[in-house]
Design brief:
Elements: H1 2-32, E1 37-53, E2 59-73, E3 76-80, E4 90-91, H2 94-101, E5 107-113, E6 121-122, H3 128-155
Helix pairs in contact: 1-3
């Protein structure tokens, strides 16, 4: 009975996390739409190979984009590596990562920066925030609903 209660509490917390992350994704996307831009420079553009295991213990390879850039706001220099809020930067196939990387060659680039915190920047604001945010909120709501429903069955 205790194990079931702990699992349901974990399920409830996971649902709340999904809801919170969904809201965060949407808010970041919305905030970024009003950020000003400056011309910066991409200083690194590469794909980094990662090795690991999936949840079943099988070997898994990922290919993550590594894009670094520098920019200047009000005479102060900054560096960044965020491509976008809510964008996919890791791929299973090297060819998919290479295709995406072609969008970010070394050289001049427009950098969006947070006017409240000039050190927070991105190269663009991806529309994925509008897609993934509501999906995460709905999924989190469903998980919370399952946890509450299951707990009422267990407790009765």
């Amino acid at each position: 009975m205790l194990a079931t209660g702990v699992f349901l509490l974990f399920l409830f917390a996971a649902g709340l996390f999904l809801i919170g992350f969904g809201v965060y994704t949407i808010v970041q996307r919305f905030r970024g739409k009003s950020w000003p831009s400056v011309t910066g420079e991409i200083t690194e553009s590469s794909v980094v190979k990662g090795e690991g295991t999936d949840t079943d213990g099988w070997p898994q390879t990922s290919h993550k984009l590594r894009v670094a850039y520098r920019y200047e706001v009000g005479g102060q220099a900054f560096t960044g590596d965020r491509i976008s809020h809510g964008s996919v930067t890791s791929y299973g196939q090297r060819s998919d990562a290479d295709k995406e990387l072609r969008k970010y060659p070394k050289g001049p680039v427009d950098v969006l920066y947070n006017p409240q915190d000039h050190g927070e920047a991105a190269l663009h604001m991806d529309s994925a925030g509008w897609v993934f945010g509501p999906i995460l909120i709905a999924l989190g709501g469903f998980v919370v609903y399952l946890a509450i429903s299951a707990s009422s069955v267990v407790l009765s």
